[in-house]
Every structure is written in structure tokens, then in C-alpha cells.
Specification:
Layout: H1 32-39, H2 58-68, E1 81-83, H3 90-94, E2 97-99, E3 106-110, E4 113-115, H4 131-135, H5 139-149, H6 161-171, E5 179-182, H7 189-197, E6 202-207, H8 210-221, H9 224-227, E7 232-236, E8 249-254, H10 264-274, E9 275-286, H11 295-303, H12 313-322, E10 326-333, E11 336-342
Parallel strand pairs: 4-7, 5-6, 5-8, 6-7, 8-9
Antiparallel strand pairs: 1-2, 2-3, 3-4, 9-11, 10-11
GO molecular function: S-adenosylmethionine-dependent methyltransferase activity
Subcellular location: Plastid, Chloroplast, Plastoglobule
InterPro entries: Methyltransf_11, SAM-dependent_MTases_sf
């Protein structure tokens, strides 16, 4: 620390002080951190004072930035700065606040999930969503989703949660150990399975429905293993505006979701953007019809889509390839399709 000259003190001749003195490794001077630990035990309560200013070391700031660089502002895709404990887990997310340094927008947790939608924090404006989007925001539908709703898909050829999970895991083998985002996760049926598998370094359960995420957390609370899992986070976001940095995610899963998206083109383009090179996208949905579907049934389904965007297998492949994904493959059973594609 430099000292101002005093008229009562004369300068000491022939002595120079370096601005940044070198201390050898065996120096007897305690480090600043060691000094603080000696005089302020961890059990003490430290109150902020207007006369004391403590700034985090640059290395600490860099480490925190690395922890959260995957999470980005949904407005400008700038990586968010976090204030709070590091880590993408339930406890750390709940106790943290996030801010974009470019657009100055702030984001915070609500009911154990982090709200990273563009509309987060709005007071007066309410955006009207398509009917099928609003349906899944209903508390009743969210409650019933794993209590009969999802099981009814088996009649259309869905093989059941355990078999679907195994099929997805086969597709995800090239990216094991990476970060997986389960978009349109619903009540977290597969998010919880991915987290419990221990195969991924991080699992993010993402949905636009607040009530689906609340249901997901209720299921997590019933499983001690998941509750203490340090690699599972809940995020509210729009699949057409994913709050992640470009090229930051290893795997994206979308189970029984594509037919619910208002714009599958925008959604798959976003998924492609956030995937790393070599990253894998796996999705499942209902087909509008297959090559073996009788013509009369095809015509009927063309007219009665019930508000959902059911696609054909050819249309799904076209969507993936037009968004830059390669190595497309699929498995079909009745109206069920699971498909996979990879970012070059």
C-alpha cells in the first residue's frame, strides 16, 4: 500500500520499494486468506461495513465464470454472471442470482427452478401462448402427466419409460460424461433417470411450464439420491430461445415433445446452435402416419390433428438435416418414432 508523504517525515535516503515485492515460497508472511481465517473463524458471522471493501480475487471470478458459462441470457446469448454459490444443482441455483452484463437483465430462481425465459421479470405484459402450450402449464395436467397421461402413449406404440430410456442411452453413448439438457422435460420423467444414471457430468431439466417443473421437484424430494445429487438443475426456458452459450452442450433430449412445439424449425435450429461439435440430439414423438398407414387413415389424420403438429418421418429427417445435423437415424413402432442426429 502506498503512503502519502507527511511534512513531519523526511524521506529515507537510498532505499527503494518495489510496487509488487517478491516473496519466496518459504516466506514467513502469512497470506491474506490465511490472515482472514486466523482472525475470522468460519463459524463467525461477518457483517458488511461501509468502511471495509473486499473484492474477490481475479482467479475466483474466473473460476465462477467457468462454472456458469454454459448458462446464457435468452435475449442476447451473453454468458450470465452469477452472484452466489457455484454449480448447476438445485441448492446452488436456488441461492444464486444471475445477470447479463450486455443487456443488464437479471434472472433469479423461483420454487427451486431458475427462470431463464425472455418474459422473466415482466410486470405488465403477458404473452399469449398456443393452446397446446398453455395446456401443459395447467396444474391438473402437470399432476396427471406421470399418473396416467404418459402411460397412455403405449397404445400408440411408445415402448414405455424404461425401454425409451435404454434406447436414448444407446444413442447418447458417444457423449457420455458430458452435459445433457432434457428440453420439454415435463415432470422430469427422463431427467431424473439421466441424473440417477451417473453417466453425465450435468443434467438440466428444462421446460416452459412452471407447474411441470414444480412436479419435477416434488418427485425429486421423494428420492434422497436425487435430492442430494450435485449435477441436476431445473430451468424454465423456451425451446425456441434456449438460454445456453453456442456450442456448450453435449447432448439434448426431447421425449414426446416435438409435436407440442409451436415452431419445430426454430426449436431444432436452437438445439443445433447449443450443441458442441459431435453433440447428439435424441427426440421422440407421434408420427402423423407411416408408409404402412391406410390411405383413409392418412386423410383422417390430416384433417384432425387436435391442435398438435404431428409430422411424418420424412419431415422430421428434413428438419434435422436442414438445420445442419447429420447421421440421422430412427426407430419406428406404430405411431412412435425415436430419432437421433448429430452436429458435425
Amino acid at each position: 500500500m502506498a503512503m502519502a508523504a507527511s511534512p513531519l517525515l523526511h524521506p529515507i535516503p537510498k532505499l527503494e520499494f518495489r510496487k509488487y515485492p517478491f516473496l519466496p515460497l518459504n516466506s514467513q508472511f502469512p497470506s491474506r486468506l490465511h490472515f482472514l481465517r486466523r482472525h475470522f473463524p468460519s463459524s463467525s458471522t461477518i457483517r458488511a461495513s461501509s468502511t471495509v471493501l473486499m473484492e474477490p480475487d481475479v482467479s475466483t471470478q474466473q473460476d465462477q465464470a467457468k462454472e456458469v458459462e454454459i448458462v446464457a441470457c435468452p435475449v442476447c446469448y451473453e454468458p450470465l454472471i452469477r452472484k452466489g454459490p457455484s454449480g448447476l444443482n438445485l441448492s446452488a441455483i436456488y441461492r444464486s442470482g444471475f445477470k447479463c452484463t450486455r443487456c443488464n437483465k437479471s434472472y433469479s430462481s423461483k420454487d427451486m427452478f431458475l427462470d431463464l425465459t425472455v418474459t422473466a421479470g415482466l410486470k405488465d405484459y403477458t404473452e399469449v401462448q398456443p393452446a397446446r402450450t398453455e395446456l401443459f402449464r395447467s396444474p391438473l395436467v402437470s399432476f396427471l402427466y406421470e399418473r396416467g397421461w404418459r402411460q397412455s402413449f403405449n397404445r400408440s406404440g411408445f415402448p414405455g419409460r424404461d425401454e425409451e430410456f435404454k434406447m436414448a442411452q444407446e444413442y447418447f453413448k458417444p457423449v457420455e460424461g458430458g452435459i445433457l439438457v432434457d428440453v420439454s422435460c415435463g415432470s422430469g420423467l427422463f431427467s431424473r433417470k439421466f441424473a440417477k444414471s451417473g453417466i453425465y457430468s450435468g443434467v438440466i431439466a428444462l421446460d416452459f411450464s412452471e407447474n411441470m417443473l414444480r412436479q419435477c421437484y416434488n418427485f425429486i424430494k421423494q428420492d434422497e439420491t436425487l435430492l442430494t445429487n450435485s449435477n441436476l438443475a431445473l430451468v424454465r426456458a423456451d425451446v425456441s430461445r434456449l438460454p445456453f452459450s453456442s456450442g456448450s452442450v453435449d447432448a439434448v433430449h426431447a421425449g414426446a415433445a416435438l409435436h407440442c412445439w409451436p415452431s419445430p424449425t426454430n426449436a431444432i435450429a436452437e438445439i443445433t446452435r447449443i450443441l458442441k461439435s459431435g453433440g447428439v440430439f435424441v427426440g421422440s414423438t407421434f408420427l402423423r402416419y407411416t408408409s404402412s398407414t391406410p390411405l383413409i387413415i392418412r386423410l383422417l389424420r390430416e384433417r384432425t390433428s387436435q391442435g398438435y403438429g404431428y409430422l411424418t418421418e420424412e419431415e422430421i429427417e428434413d428438419l434435422c438435416t436442414s438445420c445442419g445435423l447429420t447421421n440421422y437415424s430412427r426407430k419406428i413402432q406404430q405411431s412412435f418414432i425415436m430419432f437421433s442426429a448429430q452436429k458435425p
